[in-house]
């Protein structure tokens, strides 16, 4: 079979590549169960968001979550991030890399997705609470809701 690493064409019975010594797989390599933990973490992202989870987390970042809720945010972003993360994690399970590398890649995907989600939410909330929104005769909604 064709080597995934150097594309050398080996015999079907070869367990390792004749050219580079890479381990050859017949069919799809079996994904390790622990990799699906990362898939689950990506599934959890939009669920967490839809449940309003970020509104409970944001105050820990010094952000007024009520402004975010008032803005109807973060909307579709967590769904995009979650879906992208799920696809990326599932893709990693199909790569022929050693488990250690797969776990590292999956963890990286999850970190990027959750990081982007939290970063986006914090950024949006700060944007909504920026001084120019609060300027006016009427007290800002943030103050009203916080009281
Ligand atoms: Zn090879």
TrEMBL record:
The keyword Transmembrane helix applies. Keywords: Membrane, Transmembrane, Transmembrane helix. The chain crosses the membrane at residues 35-58, 70-93, 105-125. It comes from the Bacteria. This is Uncharacterized protein.
């Amino acid at each position: 079979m064709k080597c995934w690493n150097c594309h050398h064409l080996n015999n079907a019975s070869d367990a390792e590549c004749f050219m580079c010594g890479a381990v050859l797989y017949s069919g799809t390599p079996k994904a390790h169960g622990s990799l699906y933990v990362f898939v689950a973490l990506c599934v959890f992202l939009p669920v967490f968001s839809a449940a309003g989870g970020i509104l409970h987390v944001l105050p820990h970042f010094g952000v007024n979550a009520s402004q975010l809720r008032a803005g109807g945010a973060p909307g579709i972003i967590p769904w995009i991030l979650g879906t992208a993360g799920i696809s990326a994690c599932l893709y990693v399970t199909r790569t022929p890399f050693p488990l250690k590398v797969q776990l590292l890649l999956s963890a990286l995907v999850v970190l990027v997705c959750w990081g982007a989600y939290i970063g986006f939410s914090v950024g949006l909330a700060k944007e909504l609470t920026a001084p120019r929104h609060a300027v006016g005769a009427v007290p800002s909604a943030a103050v009203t809701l916080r009281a």
